[in-house]
């Protein structure tokens, strides 16, 4: 596993990535940048993020340049913002710190109203570090790869909104698993188990678990249930029947597929490193985001 830039050397250059054109985000970005500069760090803004703020003397870098030059990246926004930059920075193993200015915040876990004291502690070395797996996938047509991408959450093969059910033939490690008629199939990482896969009835997977969840979307046969596979598995999904079938990666990259195209999914060799405040716990995140700490009151309302 590649070494973590954040822990292996003093932090010198920190990139700031923000949700593009988000209302009011410029103030947060400026506050973070000023804090970092005053603490003796070099600051760089991601090129789209720079459009939201007066960058001053800070560098403006592409995601690839951030990967090559930054020791860490602070991501301000929601989980979608984190997904987008994490997929691009994964090959460079730049550790990511997430500040939540979105709605849910499974991955951007630091509240924006507490970000300054938390960042001060983290940059002083008071951190928890964890690594998350990714998936890579490709579309094969007549045995030739025509599309490739990576996913942090999930790879989803699904029917068009106006089409009937899709019929998919699934193999795992060269072994026939089943023919499935459904609205589609989700192949999710442990991180993605709290996203679309969860809404489709899939299981929660701890991010430290080496597994891949395969979750059918509205299957025709109720016996088609979610299954967790080893993360060493190679999954091949052949489109047997259906119209307007697409494959998407984290709902950010899409490709249209035809009958008898195969979508091949496996674990990526890259990982994403998250940095959290000292004392962070995945179970704390689940309790907060899934409201496990709330109980019905006598009036039937959550409290």
Automatic annotation (TrEMBL):
Keywords: ATP-binding, Cytoplasm, Kinase, NAD, NADP, Nucleotide-binding, Transferase
Cellular location(s): Cytoplasm
Pfam families (UniProt xref): NAD_kinase, NAD_kinase_C
Residues of the active site: 79
Predominant place of localization: cytoplasm
InterPro entries: ATP-NAD_kinase_N (IPR017438), ATP-NAD_kinase_PpnK-typ_C (IPR017437), NAD/diacylglycerol_kinase_sf (IPR016064), NADK (IPR002504)
Cofactors demanded by this protein: a divalent metal cation
This protein's GO CC annotations: cytoplasm
Domain of life, source organism: Bacteria
EC code(s) of this entry: 2.7.1.23
UniProt: NAD(+) binding residues: 79-80, 153-154, 181, 183, 194-199, 218, 252
Reactions listed under catalytic activity: NAD(+) + ATP = ADP + NADP(+) + H(+)
Molecular functions per Gene Ontology: ATP binding; metal ion binding; NAD binding; NAD+ kinase activity
Signal peptide start-end: none
One GO BP annotation of this record: NAD+ metabolic process
Protein family: Belongs to the NAD kinase family.
Main function: Involved in the regulation of the intracellular balance of NAD and NADP, and is a key enzyme in the biosynthesis of NADP. Catalyzes specifically the phosphorylation on 2'-hydroxyl of the adenosine moiety of NAD to yield NADP.
The protein's name: NAD kinase
Gene that this sequence comes from: nadK
């Amino acid at each position: 596993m590649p070494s973590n830039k954040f822990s292996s050397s003093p932090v010198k250059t920190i990139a700031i990535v923000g949700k593009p054109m988000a209302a009011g985000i410029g103030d947060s970005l400026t506050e973070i940048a000023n804090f970092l500069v005053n603490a003796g760090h070099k600051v760089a803004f991601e090129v789209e993020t720079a459009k939201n703020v007066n960058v001053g003397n800070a560098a403006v870098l592409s995601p690839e340049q951030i990967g090559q030059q930054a020791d860490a990246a602070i991501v301000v926004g929601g989980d979608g913002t984190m997904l987008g930059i994490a997929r691009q920075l994964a090959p460079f193993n730049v550790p990511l710190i997430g500040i939540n200015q979105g709605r849910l915040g499974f991955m951007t876990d630091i509240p924006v109203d507490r970000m300054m004291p938390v960042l001060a502690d983290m940059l002083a070395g008071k951190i928890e570090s964890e690594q998350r797996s990714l998936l890579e996938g490709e579309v094969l047509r007549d045995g030739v790869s025509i599309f490739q991408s990576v996913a942090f959450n999930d790879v989803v093969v699904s029917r068009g909104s106006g089409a009937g059910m899709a019929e998919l033939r699934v193999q795992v490690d060269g072994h026939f698993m089943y023919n499935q008629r459904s609205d589609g199939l989700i192949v999710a990482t442990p991180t993605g188990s709290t996203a679309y896969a969860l809404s489709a009835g899939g299981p929660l997977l701890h991010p430290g678990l080496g597994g891949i969840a395969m979750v059918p979307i509205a299957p025709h046969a109720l016996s088609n249930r979610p299954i967790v596979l080893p993360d060493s598995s190679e999954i091949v999904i052949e489109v047997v029947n259906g119209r307007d079938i697409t494959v998407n990666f984290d709902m950010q990259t899409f490709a249209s597929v035809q009958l008898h195209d195969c979508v091949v999914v496996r674990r990526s060799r890259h990982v994403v490193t998250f940095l959290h405040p000292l004392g962070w716990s995945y179970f704390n995140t689940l309790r907060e985001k899934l409201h496990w700490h709330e109980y019905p009151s006598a009036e039937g309302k959550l409290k």
